[in-house]
Batch of 4 targets.
Target 1
Amino acid sequence: MKRLAPWIACLLLTALFASPVWAANSTAASAVPAVKDSSPSSPYAKAISTVTGVAISPLLGTGALGIWQNFKAKTPEEKASLPWYAQWTFIVPALALVGLVAAKDTIGAALPPGMKKPLDVLETIENKASGLVAAGAVVPFTMSALSKMIIAQATPAGDVLTANGLAAVQVGAIDWSWALSILTVPIGIAVFLVVWMASHAINALILLSPWGAIDAVLKGARTALLGLIAVTATLSPWVSAILSLVVILIAYLVAGWAFRLTIFGAIFSWDFFTLRKRRFAVAEKGENLMFSSNTLTDQGVPMRTYGRLHHEPENGKIVFRYRPWLVLAEKTLDVRLETASLGKGLFLSTIRSGEKTAFVLPPRYRDHEDAVARAYGIEGGVQDAGLLKAWGALKELFGGSSAHAQVV
């Protein structure tokens, strides 16, 4: 079931991605104005939709939210009191950067992988940075506003508490929203992180993918989902909230898969832009950090688990040590490499067992493949590796159990 979870999630999301066009056409055809939902529970629905939408695409979502809040503010005083992300000094540069990314994706579909990959790495870093900003600013703003609405509905101005008829306290004059925010803000950030991690996995998949056309499809699907949430929010907050809850549930189900891809993207980006390979040396008599691949999935090690590979030359034993979620209790696995060899790719190299990939080496190992072969007694040596067959690469991209690793 765990192996099927990413595929099930992709199928569900694909069904949702087709809905924005249908929803937009239906709205235009009917020309029925949206009904404003003033029910007491409406703020909950709007908060869920806002947090989910921003998490799917932090920079685009934050810019769109800023434009909406700026548009709703009518007076100069209201505009001046808006948060920083609703000011044009942020909106214009943010959406300009979104436009540059879209142009990169459009042009990059026709570029060779080697020319587009540095731009993909830059976008991965941008997505991490904007996600951090949104988690630290937009989500707390949203949840704090929700807390104020809840308190305002629970204690309308004018309510009075009396004690034996001797004293009266004007409850409406006391702002208890800060206390409620202590509960709502962490919940909002947790939801944001789960959804953002699933969305950010797309950037990691793009780093693995050698085809610009696949990149465009993945990006288009993510943007379509964000558009669907925005469109439904204008029609009915609760429809948008239900859709957001479906997205949150799917993100939760694939959290482990998304977390491993997020770690992979972070390591790839760091190694690539810091030119880590120039300062790196393979520990030929120790342990080396790398990612597991499909050969170990049958032994209970999830795809792209980050861990240490240790070689014991005295008995020829190779052991993989790793911590689930990077912090849980350490696990070990004895690894058997049959007809082992090193595959040297353009950006990533791999340790192969027969025709399958056992481990994926981060970019820091580039040009150090001979040392890796010596460290683990790989008799097959180093062999140049290119792009594999399309179907095998697609299955590897989404973590298929029988896939071969994609070397780019």
Target 2
Amino acid sequence: MLCLLAAEPEVRAGMPAPTGWLTPSEATRLRALGSEARRDTFLAGRWLARRAVQGGLGVAGMPALDVADGGACVVAGVAGAYVSISHSAGFVACAAGGLPVGIDVESLARPRDHLALAEAVHGPAQREQLAALTPEARAEAFLRWWTLKEAWLKARGQGLDFALMRGLSFDADALGDTAVTRIGELVLAVAADPGLPPRIDGVPGAAWQRSRTRVLA
């Protein structure tokens, strides 16, 4: 799996004019976005996703990407090629691989009431652990679980499902289906269905903590 993480301005600086590479479904989605900032973010994600597909899967030429009905990114015309995109705090992250993949990135710099949010997305045992931590440690722990859960859902083609998220738990497992790392003020997680490959390339300095997802009743 290839995972790329970059600041949006850096991605756009090396990006050719989108009229030369956007597919019709992407162009339709771009026109529907209501602000220049959202359009810039969308373009940065779509361009970095192409680089991830090329580098991670050895796809020759410029891959065509479509927008699925739910908004996910789909590799068109290449069997066994999958890509996922996430954005946060001016950064864009992409993962590409030969199995269904999901990625999520979140910023620790964004103020949140983590205990209140945990009521919606984390189970009782996770909430109890969060309550026992200092605010700084709580922020990272909350986002590690959040990003793992969202990446896991994306790898299975699902949108946010808070009830299901509350029932997801993670056990350390070097052969698991999810992994998470911290890069500066960002928390980044990836997932693949049914499991991650042995190597996750593309993010210098990433100390991936791998885990196996359990779906609790």
Target 3
Amino acid sequence: MPGISRSGSTIATAVMLGIDREKAARFSFLMVLPLIFGAMAKELKDYSDLSVEAQSQALIFDSTVVLGFVAALVAGYFACKWMIAIVKRSKLSYFAYYCWIVGAIGIIYTLV
């Protein structure tokens, strides 16, 4: 549904089921790992399907890719820590109202 985030919906559902907010947030953020690893595996497969000449051309950019991966890993780690801290100390009802409103607007827009 438009306006509903994967992490928001899983956290909200877990909290409604009585699961601790921090555990729900950790689980929600861990759910994305299979998607990330799947995308990485697909990229590696696509890379291995290249010709030897194309692979050697692509190796020029490997240091940039590694630096980008490390930067994304570090930024993602701190973003997850920050979001878990927010989930622990804030009211999720405001986020739920936002999701309902944006979702309803999205449904109405799609139907009209």
Target 4
Amino acid sequence: MLAVIYYILALVLVVTIHEFSHAWVAAKLGDPTAKIAGRLTLNPMAHLDLMGTIMLFLIHIGWGKPVPVNPHYFKKPKRDEALTALAGPVSSLILALLLTLPLKYLPLVMPQPFFDFLSTVLDVSLLLFIFNMLPFPPLDGSKIVAIFIPRRFQRIYSNYLDNGMIYFAIFLLFDQFVLAQIFNFSILQFVIGNIFTFLKTLLFLGT
């Protein structure tokens, strides 16, 4: 039961920082849309997303409400929109890096519950970083790759962003409730699990 509580609290914390980072970078790059919408805040209630919360309970991975962005305010819309999208995953990676230090060097001076909670936050940070870097709408990775899309494919890419979310949701459900349940294999868990193991090993070896 404690592990579930730690996980939920960690997810709320990481998602809040993630979405706040989007809003903060967008504001710094000249777009006030998120600030006007009340998203430039560390209040978790401002960042909860219905579908992301449902997915949390179905597949144990969720996401926050997308931060509104108006690229017309940006000096270089394609670059700045990609940077705004990148801010969320990077905040999760930085949080994981910061938590690695006390978890590696101060485990004996921390109460066990606090150590367990910080460990959970670190794990959730890495998982959310990996998950959000996947190039599928509504995840940040789908917007980050925009900077690499040639101009002639821009309309196709825009259609992909507009319609890809429903297909990604179908894939998530198929992966978890068909592949995982019937064949005992999940594409998502395989990909994310291997990257997670690699990054976590790298963090603790490199600090």
